Fold these 4 entries.
Entry 1:
Amino acid sequence: MSEQHHHIHAPAAGPADRSLLRAYAISIGLYLAFMAVEFFIGRASHSLGLVSDAGHKLLDVLTLGAALIGFRLAGRDARRAQRISALIALFNTAVLLVTAGMILSGSLRRLAEPGPVDGAAVTWTAAAGILVSGLGAFLLMRHQGDINTRAAFLHMASDSLLSLGVVLAGILISCTGWHIVDPLVSIAVSAVILFNTVRLLTDALRQLAGTQKRAG
């Protein structure tokens, strides 16, 4: 549904300024809070689309967290920061693969036996997700000179497209009663999570190999 690029490279320059760190911290807090709300509303409304979108927000939180740790360490030892960022990314990929697998499994079961979904709850919650992604992108917009921040900005901006897809699914369910749309959207979001997780894994392994080669 959208292309997203996960860069885990440590910054070449010194530590980020306070405003950038504050922007990351606020963005992570926003995403964590909304992810929890979206997950519980998704469970209450029997929407796997919302649950899967919450899983995608987890991808955002882990990516932003890894970048933030990289910023913290960059001023001390750039090589160590790159290695730690790569190891964190490897851990993140394991978490995300399990998350995407669970969502995909539930979606396939729901696809075989579609159940009732609260289309209005799906629509309004996903619409709120667009606002959260937009606010996160706005906070990072003026810091795009750094490659990590630019990637995070594009990631958050493209998140709005995923949330928009869930909004449209909620409207379709409300108007037509086609509850099968919900697991279909969930499968699509799971596919996006898996695609980006593989890319993150590839970047992490490449960066880890690079740090070992330079150390040797």
Note: The domain at 18-215 is CATH 1.20.1510 (Alpha-lytic protease prodomain-like).
Entry 2:
Amino acid sequence: MLPFSIKSASECKFDILSLGEIMLRLDPGDGRIHTTHQFAVWEGGGEYNVARGLRRCFGKRAAVVTAFADNPIGCLLEDLILQGGM
């Protein structure tokens, strides 16, 4: 087995790359789901949350590789991700 080498940060475009799906979370706030008329919307997902946290808390260069539907929901998801600096 050959040993692997880790590239220096200056040789890389990103410090972390998240792969996988990102979901929309619907939060009814203080109300109950079955009686609410409004939801706050948040983006999230396991690997994405880690990458976004490293970006926001530690200034790491983070990116995500995923797919979006070509519709208003996909546009909303893309906008939320861009607002998070990814």
Note: The radius of gyration is 17 Å.
Entry 3:
Amino acid sequence: MLDVQTLILLIPVILLALTVHEYSHGMVAYRLGDPTAKYAGRLTLNPLSHLDPIGTLMLVLVHFGWAKPVPVDPRYFANPKRDMLWVALAGPASNMVLALISGLIIRYANTNPALFMSSTLGHSLLAMIFLSLQINLALAVFNLLPIPPLDGSKILYGLLPPGYEHISYNLERYGPGVLFGLVIMGMVTGVSILWAFIGPFVYFFSALFAGV
């Protein structure tokens, strides 16, 4: 169970990570010709427009969660299959950028410790930045898993050669149930199969971006 202090630091990190993730989906779709997100009021950095209560709670409790999906209409795209791939990739890519920025700040803090460690506020800010690194990496890698309805399933569809799209269609039938089952299994048993896949990537990029 998270203590109150960690929860206070974690909430703004989660809000930023989810908001930027969904905004990036909508903005790339808009740039590619789809105004659906704009008309729905989702091209905004206001967290209240993107939050899914259950998904946010899951992210706080088990570090796997989601926001309210940005509406996208592929009929507006010149090349729906290719353009949906870019829209799907935009969310995880935005979280990787936030993780990189967080990592660079941590590297700077390690070479200038007096700037952050000399006060309670500075110490709390550095802790929040470290959480930002971890949460954004976990969110990016989690969403890249090719399990519907995660972004990775749409990226997989965009990469499949013509004639193999049925693989993606079959995944859509069972993916949500499998994903939910894996999350619940991890909560009940304390052994997360998802984290077994995601954890090594989080550790690798934490070391690469922040040196920790």
Note: Residues 4-210 form one domain.
Entry 4:
Amino acid sequence: MLRVENLDLFYGDAQALADVSIEIRAGTIVAIVGANGAGKTSLIRTIAGMLAPARGRIMFRDIDITGWESHRVCNLGIGQVAEGRQIFPTLSVAENLEVGAMLARARASRTRNLERVFALFPVLAERSGQAAGTLSGGEQQMLAIGRCLMGAPDLVMFDEPSLGLAPAIVQHVLRTIRDLNREGLTCVLVEQNVAVSLKLANAAYVLENGRVTLSGHGEALLADDRVRQAYLGM
């Protein structure tokens, strides 16, 4: 579904990504793991059209989307749940969800998508008129996921979805990602909880200093001594 080929990205003179290549197959969960500053979020933002690479290609369903503006990438079917939620705090829950449905691809299915979001996260239906900024951290994360789903994406990139959440909410969010995948949604998961993300993932890539250093099946990488020592303290 998605191929990143030999991607280079710079912030000024500093190289954030170096010759990065990954492949996302339709219907899978792909984890991208690594330490802080390894380039995970830079990769997500480049795919989403928020950053322009210096070299390489991004192919989505055999369409070259390298350098496309982010709204065009979204309308093609690539959604993003950004790190830190990035909701609109002064807008209501319902208004935040409406923003997600503004894409041309999503307008016809707006009612069906809203029903789906409320079925996944009933608390959002209960608080639809409430200002989003007054929600708890977990509820804001649910809203961020719901807003993305309102855009009817075929692939969603989740950037640190469990960051700063209570353990019980983390489990709920990760179960939701697993369930969405079982319904057919292709997922890219950047997650600080390496053990959990590798258990969920069909495939995974390890980024170090902007380069892919390991790749393989999630469970296989979880058993790799290099991964266990570097990220699991074993």
Note: Residues 1-77+154-164+193-234 form a domain with the Rossmann fold fold (CATH 3.40.50.300).
